[in-house]
Design goal:
The protein is α+β, with helices and mostly antiparallel strands. The chain has a single domain (39-190, 212-344), classed as Jelly Rolls (Sandwich). The protein is 16% helix and 30% strand. The protein has six helices and 22 strands. It has helices at 12-20, 30-33, 50-63, 167-172, 220-233, 332-338, and strands at residues 46-48, 73-75, 93-99, 104-110, 114-120, 124-128, 131-134, 140-143, 149-153, 159-165, 178-180, 188-189, 217-218, 240-243, 258-264, 269-272, 279-285, 288-291, 296-299, 304-307, 313-317, 324-330. A six-stranded antiparallel sheet has the order 1-20-17-22-15-14. Strands 2-3-10-5-8-13 form a six-stranded antiparallel sheet. Strands 11-4-9-6-7-12 form a six-stranded mixed sheet, with no helix packed on it. The protein is globular, with a radius of gyration of 22 Å. The two termini are 21 Å apart. 37% of the residues are buried. The protein binds 1-hydroxynaphthalene-2-carboxylic acid. The site of 1-hydroxynaphthalene-2-carboxylic acid has 11 residues, from strand 3, strand 4 and strand 10.
């Protein structure tokens, strides 16, 4: 590969003349924007312990009333991007949100897509586009782009959930904004029952739903059961993994980020191949290690970590008697749409 010239090779009066005309020579920066072989990600392997962050989140509950926060969130920021960027990866934002009994997070809608993975507590709900969705541990609830949403809490204990948004990308595209609105009228509840079983969808009078987001809540009780069923039908050693999809189209449930649930059988190890998208792994249940070439993390229940793209990941269930269950968010829908998606062999 050619050794390219640097900025220092150029006379300073020439550089100044370029700058005055808003011009930049490409060759001193070419290798930075086009590194050989594979990208040099800013996203680093990063880990957040729930046990360590929980007291700080509860403290935020004492320090900052909802009226001063709108959403009371501690952002899980990847140091590789700089904490102030509030990014877990190039396209993924992560935050832990706290709602205390009786609190209310007012209605708004925005261009970034969000999902919530419920981490602890009972009695909270989120209303999305008029559908009141109960929040129970392990549930995945979608808040797609442009849909009104607000959160309430009728229970007696704090409720915490993990927010995953495509905010870094939508912000980078200069398309991120929010609108505030009045409280929504609840028009339906329990809509997830309409999509209870895989392979069949509602078709009243032979008519199928044409909504882009027909299913908003994916109850953990159903997903967990499906994983246990899949584990029995899959040969040992094959990944037990389910994708959260739009049940009408069969495609990813959101446009930019993809979501899946993965089970490790007791004592099981699994290698996830190196793929172009960065991913976030959140342990819903169990105990597991997550290892890349650069880092190794031990995840306890409710812990979260991030792994950069182009790097293989080794998962290992640390229990020989209990399964481990992961929630995984990644950038694969985006990469596929852009024609950038890659799976690599051994890295
Ligand atoms: C948002 O709307 C929520 O509605 C949570 O709970 C986190 C982070 C950035 C932008 C919007 C919510 C968010 C957010």
């Amino acid at each position: 590969m050619l050794q390219l010239g640097t900025l220092d090779d150029l006379p300073s009066d020439y550089r100044d003349a370029l700058t005055r005309q808003h011009l930049v020579p490409l060759w001193p920066s070419l290798r930075k924007v086009l590194p050989p072989g594979k990208p040099i990600p800013q996203t680093r392997p990063a880990y957040w312990s729930y046990e360590a962050l929980r007291p700080l989140l509860m403290q935020a509950g004492e320090l900052t009333p909802m009226e001063k926060a709108e959403r009371r969130v501690l952002v899980l920021a990847n140091p590789g991007h700089g904490l102030e960027k509030m990014q877990a990866s190039a396209a993924i934002y992560l935050g832990m949100q706290l709602l205390l009994p009786g609190e209310w997070a007012p209605a708004h809608r925005h261009t970034p897509n969000a999902v919530r993975m419920i981490v602890e507590g009972e009695g909270a709900y989120t209303t999305v586009d008029g559908e009141k969705c109960l929040m129970q541990r392990g549930d995945l609830i979608l808040t797609p782009t442009g849909l009104w949403h607000e959160h309430g809490h009728d229970g007696s204990e704090p409720v915490v959930w993990l927010d995953v948004l495509d905010l870094p990308l939508v912000h980078y595209l200069e398309t991120s904004y929010v609108q505030e609105g009045p409280p929504q009228k609840v028009s339906q509840q329990g809509q997830e029952r309409a999509y209870r079983s895989g392979g069949v969808v509602p078709a009243p009078l032979f008519v199928r739903s044409r909504q882009p987001y027909p299913m908003l809540r994916y109850p953990w009780s159903e997903v967990r059961q499906s994983l246990l069923g899949l584990a029995q039908s899959q040969p040992a050693g094959e990944a037990v993994q389910l994708a959260y999809i739009n049940p009408e189209s069969g495609s990813d449930c959101q446009n930019i980020l993809g979501y899946s649930a993965l089970m490790l059988r007791p004592g099981e190890s699994l290698r996830l191949p190196a793929r172009s998208p960065a991913a976030v792994l959140h342990l819903i249940e169990g105990s597991s290690s997550v290892e890349t070439a650069q880092a190794q993390f031990t995840l306890a229940e409710a812990d979260t970590c991030c792994v950069p793209g182009y790097s293989a990941v080794q998962l290992r269930n640390r229990s020989t008697s209990q399964p481990a269950f992961f929630f995984i968010a990644d950038e694969s829908p985006l990469h596929r749409k852009l024609g950038l998606y890659e799976v690599r062999g051994e890295d």
